[in-house]
Amino acid sequence: MGLATRLGPWLMGTVRNTTGTALGQIRNLGCDGPGQTKAVLFSDTATTNAFVIPAGSILTNLAFYSSVAFNGTAPTISVSLYNGTTTTPIGSAAMTSGTPYNNVIPFAATAAAGAAISNVGPTDVWLQYAISGTTVTTGQGVLLAEYLVRNPDGSYTPTAFTGP
């Protein structure tokens, strides 16, 4: 089976409830860390919705893996987040024509990208991509996004008791 459903933080370790302030007495909750993939073709030149990233998530990694090298002048994959009203570019990778690109997509070094990556916001967002370049005639691969699922406000611990 390739799918799982989980809501809420993971309880990690052996301490179910905090009973003090020392190590071994403090409950340790963590975030879920899923990833999603989308097949990409050289002809995906229009902005394409790849998949939905849940509200509050923090993006940890973008990567692209070519199964067929992209050919053309300056083939590039660009990735953005779209919340229904605003598109925020978050990363891009220039590929060498004729050479498979199997690497991370660097995050954009902008304040807007940093804000969007560190918390996608209070609602779900689309992760989008587009292929650009001149006369890009071949190429296909897989786009990967990894993220930590958190509450819509960006926190990852419950604000009230939610377990048995």
List the helices and strands and how they pair.
Blueprint: E1 10-12, E2 28-30, E3 35-41, E4 48-53, E5 58-82, E6 87-94, E7 102-104, H1 111-118, E8 125-148
Antiparallel strand pairs: 1-2, 3-8, 4-8, 5-6, 5-7, 5-8
Write a structural description.
This protein is mostly beta strands. The chain has one domain: Jelly Rolls. Helix content is 5%, strand content 48%. A hairpin with a 4-residue loop joins strand 5 and strand 6. The radius of gyration is 19 Å and the shape is elongated.
Distance between the termini: 27 Å
Helix count from the secondary structure assignment: 1
CATH architecture label name:
Sandwich
Radius of gyration (CA) equals 19 Å
Order of helices and strands: EEEEEEEHE
Average pLDDT score: 87
- How many strand units? 8
Overall geometric form: elongated
Total discrete domains: 1
* Biggest beta-sheet profile: 6 strands, antiparallel
Measured by DSSP, the beta-strand proportion falls in: over 45%
The CATH class = Mainly Beta
Q: Helicity range of the residues?
A: under 10%
Coarse structural class: mainly beta
Unreliable residue runs: none
CATH topology: Jelly Rolls
Defining key terms:
164 residues; mainly beta; Jelly Rolls; six-stranded antiparallel sheet; two-stranded antiparallel sheet; 8 strands
Would you kindly provide a brief summary of this structure?
This protein has 164 residues and is mainly beta. The chain has 1 helix and 8 strands; from the N terminus they run βββββββαβ.
